[in-house]
Specification:
By secondary structure, the protein is of the alpha+beta class. Helices cover 16% and strands 41% of the residues.
Amino acid sequence: MITLNAELRDVKVNPKMIRRSGSIPAVFYGPSHKSTSISVTRVAFDKAYKEAGESAIITLKVGAISVDALIHDVELDPVIGEPIHADFYIVAKDQKIEVDIPLEFVGVAPAEKLGGVTTKVMHELRIESLPGKIPQHIVVDLSKLEAMDSHITVGDLILGDGVRAILEKTEVVVTISAQREEETETPAEIDMSSIEVEKKGKKEEEEVPAE
């Protein structure tokens, strides 16, 4: 399990000063933990976030306190896209939680050789599970898409023991369909005779002498 060290943060200190020192202001909370302000070094947080994302449990250490947590929410700088604040949600090992798990698509759909086009309807799936059984990702095997208009639903996925999908089993995860041919519009033929008539009428009008 990933371990991330943090320090208690004085809320009177301007967050900009914390960021300039190479850290990120953060907070942790949970059902049995009051909201507590902390800070984590940017380098350590970036590494943990890259490995765990928002679905894997990490160990958050604050002094003598050590808790299991999810990186619940990350605020990014609107200009450069770097993390500027993070929320950690403390989980209880005996309580189920809901979390979005990324889908990992593997293999190649055989129907693509028939001209089919694969469409990924989902890229993550919300599940309910005990913290210790949360999968890091859920595999979607595209090799099952053998025929045109075939699909894989939530019910076809292997989630793991004790893991339940929040969505209905009939919800489509990925589908394959025939490639649509682009319709090309045939340009309308120009009626040259009408153009000649218009030109002729205009010329006659110009030649009529003024009274």
